[in-house]
Amino acid sequence: MDQFVIEGGVPLRGTVQVSGAKNAALPILAATLLADGPCRLEGVPDLRDIRTMLRILEELGVEAGREEDGTITTRVVDPTRVRAPYELVKTMRASICVLGPLLGRRRRAEVSFPGGCVIGPRPVDLHLTGLEALGARIVVEAGYIGAEGADLHGGGELYLGGPFGPTVTGTANVLSAAVLAPGTTIIQCAACEPEIVDLARFLVAMGARIEGIGSPTLVIHGVERLKGTNWKVIPDRIEAGTLACAAAMTGGDVVIEGLDTTAMTAPLTVLERMGVGLERREDGSLRVIGVGRPKPADVVTLPYPGFPTDLQAQFMALLCVADGNSFVTEKIYPERFIHVAELQRLGARIRKEGASAIVTGVPELTGAPVMASDLRASAALVVAGLAARGTTTVERVYHIDRGYERIEEKLRGLGARIERCNPARTEAAAAGS
Ligand code: EPU
Q: Pocket of ligand 1, candidates 48, 93, 167: which has the most ligand atoms within 8 Å of its Cβ, to mutate?
């Protein structure tokens, strides 16, 4: 298994380009199942999760491939296939995003029930009740969600809020089924995340009729068919935020290009409160200047436009070296604190209290071997390792590869000393020589 070996303490400097958003590209790729013609998607990052989605689409009778310039093309060749198998779904929860499009276009779906997750319970009850409101019949059997929609129709007014607010992929699923359901569906408490806005706009480009995009109330008038279209996926605000944390934590000076700062008001405001220098430039790029120890800050994760849970771990890494006590509260995934124990291995002082953590900043972290456990927790360990004195080895970087495109290359381009190694391969090569 690959690991990252990081020699920390180098201030990052230079310019870096943000990739397309994984969490927009995944439901958009799934929504190509709805199209009667081919789709061309630009800005889809080359990631493990994206490759998993392409394999699922192939299982579902879609010819999908990446052209030399990175564009993804999709074309439905066998619309009779409706089963997303456990072997693929178990590796990526976002596989559930094919449920709504399959039901909408093929009126039938069999999608493996996504399993457990290290960031806490992640039920899909809201997805299912939302689809039932559109007339779908849902049966869970042998680990699969079976959905049948011969009588799919507009769902009238339905509520998608759960105990922690709206559901992001649940909104994607219900929206993607409702666009082809005759009649009107009004989704109340729809997720407002920029990734859902991108999906909705993509659906409109295919011919869907959706009002209220970007608001918690989506009004969908079902249409008979959707055509294929060309689309450019929005930039990844979570990758941009992760790079900003790395720049700030190493005391660096980094220009992040190709991002959309308007989708990042909450995290950028927190950085400003911490005293990190931010310069929003006319060309749309963002300059991040780290200035000594940051000030402490309180972070509460919330649905968009609140602070994103997907940046909680990376900000916690930064707060570990703040000059004082910070309070981090998780309101989306109360158990998403798996990074705490690993950050402690680097010398961080963190006390967890229920769904909160009190972070007492220390002057510096020191390198150590740490274990990646989920995508964003791993990103936090890389951010911390870049700033820590000495060597940090991050094991199981396949978690990072799920969601960050060429991360070590991008960081090396900023002067970071980070190498991808595979001890088993190195040993085998040595034994063979
Ligand atoms: N929830 C329910 N019932 C449901 C669905 C969700 O109770 O049917 C709860 C969840 O347990 C959670 C909250 O509602 O407490 C929000 O979950 P949501 O459904 O919004 O999450 P998701 O759609 O499964 C997406 C992202 C996650 C991101 C969350 C929150 C994708 C592919 N995934 O997940 O991204 O953390 O929204 O913003 O878009 C990541 O990229 O690392 C990642 C985990």
A: 167
HSE-up (13 A, CA, CB side) for residue 240: 31
User: Tell me: the pLDDT tens digits for 119-136?
Assistant: 888 899 999 999 999 999
Say how many Å lie between the CA of residue 433 and the centre of ligand 1.
48
- Judge whether 391 and 6 are in contact, CB under 8 Å: yes
Mean pLDDT across 401-414 = 96
What residue's CA is closest to ligand 1, atom 17? 167
Ligand 1 pocket residues where CB is under 6 Å: 23, 26, 94, 121-127, 162-164, 167-170, 195, 309-310, 332-333, 375-376, 403
> Which residue in 97, 117, 245, 320 is the catalytic one?
117
Contact in structure between 59 and 44 (CB atoms under 8 Å):
no
What phi and psi values does residue 20 have, to the nearest 5 degrees? -70, 160
CA gap 255, 176 in Å, rounded = 36
CB 190 within 8 A of CB 197: no
Report residue 378 as tokens: 């791993």
C-alpha span between 6 and 201 (Å, rounded): 40
The reply to whether 421 belongs to the active site is no
Going by CA atoms, what residue is nearest to atom 35 of ligand 1? 310
- The CA distance from 85 to 31, in Å, is 18
The pLDDT value given to residue 122: 86
pLDDT digits (tens, 9 = 90+) for 228-286: 999 999 999 999 999 999 999 999 999 999 999 999 999 999 999 999 999 999 999 99
